[in-house]
Design goal:
8 helices; 2 domains; alpha/beta; 6-stranded parallel beta sheet; 2-enoyl-CoA Hydratase, Chain A, domain 1; about 200 residues
């Protein structure tokens, strides 16, 4: 079981990559419990190897051929979604809890980034942008992210395998594991990990 709560640091990414590699060698299924805001960013963390170690985790998860099951128990944002086996990385099953949120980034972060870009453009042209105008600009962006990041939006589009009651997680994962083990296991062939 790989679980997290918040950001992934270089050390946790490297540890996760090693864990996935060992599970594949032993032909053990992997269960991912996602509550991820992404990989840690900033000069200090980039100098510490977050890009390299994050890539190791992403490579390990993408190459793993053992059954992978994912449950989004909180947020699932950014590249962390890939590191914790989001839909693009082929989990046999992906379930969401009712409180889950899944998107490229949170609504507030998206609204702030887009507002900063707009403010910079307005000010570069010699204009002014009031706080009220900025708030009016950000509100529909936050609302859209809130609506489209909802687990029911995802499930309605068949981007996952359903919203499950947290109380049923153990039973649902047991059934999913049993179903997953009916398929033949391929041998995992990892690429070259950058040391």
């Amino acid at each position: 079981i790989l679980a997290n709560a918040g950001v992934l640091f270089a050390e946790s990414s490297q540890k996760g990559a090693h864990f996935v590699e060992l599970a594949c060698k032993r032909r053990l299924p992997l269960v991912f419990l996602q509550n991820i805001t992404g990989f840690m960013v900033g000069k200090e963390y980039e100098a510490g190897g977050i890009a390299k170690d994050g890539a190791k985790l992403v490579t390990a998860v993408s190459c793993a051929r053992v059954p992978k099951l994912t449950v989004v128990v909180g947020g699932s944002f950014g590249a962390g979604n890939y590191g914790m086996c989001g839909r693009a990385f082929g989990p046999r099953f992906l379930f969401l809890w009712p409180n889950a949120r899944i998107s490229v980034m949170g609504g507030e972060q998206a609204a702030s980034v887009l507002a900063t870009l707009k403010r910079d453009n307005i000010e570069a042209g010699g204009g002014q942008w009031s706080a009220e105008e900025e708030a009016a600009f950000k509100a529909p962006i936050r609302a859209r992210y809130e609506e489209e990041g909802c687990p029911y939006f995802s499930t309605a589009r068949l981007w996952d395998d359903g919203v499950i009651d947290p109380r049923d997680t153990r039973r649902v994962l047991g059934l999913a594991l049993a179903a997953s083990l009916n398929a033949p296991l391929e041998e995992t062939r990892f690429g070259v990990f950058r040391m």
